[in-house]
């Protein structure tokens, strides 16, 4: 599927709220409503054997499906509110997710920032440590 110029611009505008440095008030006037199907599928998939196995293999414990259930119930609650209350709830949820991403664990905890580039990354000056097989 090839997107036209108008569709590409719309897609880029939808991504702006996810980027750091944008305030919620200035970039969005209308939040997309939550999808009950999306949240239910996430909750249901959390209990599948494949997901249980992958999570246990990666993290050594069962996945936290309670958070998926809470998201699903939260989405149901938004459907019973007025438009203004829905928008406020959706905006707050999005900002909470962004804050959790910023405050959560990331690769900067593992990798240190390199200030200067490596000079001898591909330089094989020490030939005694590398045996030639050619």
Describe this structure in words.
With 134 residues, this protein is an all-alpha fold. The protein has a domain of 66 residues. Helix content is 54%, strand content 0%. It is built from six helices and no strands. The protein is flat. The N terminus is likely disordered.
Key traits:
134 residues; mainly alpha; 6 helices; 0% strand; flat
Fold blueprint:
Layout: H1 5-15, H2 24-27, H3 36-46, H4 49-59, H5 66-79, H6 83-103
Helix pairs in contact: 3-5
The portion of residues assigned to helices is 40-55%
How many DSSP helices? Answer: 6
Shape: flat
Number of strands: 0
User: What percentage of the residues does DSSP assign to strands (E)?
Assistant: under 5%
How is the biggest beta sheet arranged?
none
Q: Which stretches are low in confidence, meaning pLDDT under 50 for 5 or more residues running?
A: 1-28
Structural class: mainly alpha
Supply Rg: 23 Å
Order of helices and strands: HHHHHH
Q: Give the overall pLDDT as a whole number.
A: 76
Distance between the termini: 49 Å
State the gist of this model.
With 134 residues, this protein is mainly α.
């Amino acid at each position: 599927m090839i997107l036209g110029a108008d569709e590409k611009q719309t897609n880029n505008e939808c991504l702006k709220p996810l980027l750091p440095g944008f305030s919620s008030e200035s970039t969005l006037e209308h939040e997309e409503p939550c999808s009950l199907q999306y949240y239910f599928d996430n909750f249901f998939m959390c209990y599948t054997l494949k997901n249980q196995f992958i999570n246990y293999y990666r993290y050594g414990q069962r996945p936290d499906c309670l958070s998926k259930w809470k998201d699903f119930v939260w989405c149901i609650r938004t459907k019973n509110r007025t438009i203004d209350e829905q928008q406020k709830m959706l905006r707050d949820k999005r900002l909470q997710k962004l804050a959790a991403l910023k405050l959560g664990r990331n690769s900067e905890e593992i990798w240190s920032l390199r200030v200067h580039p490596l000079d001898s990354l591909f330089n094989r000056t020490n030939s005694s440590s590398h045996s030639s097989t050619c």
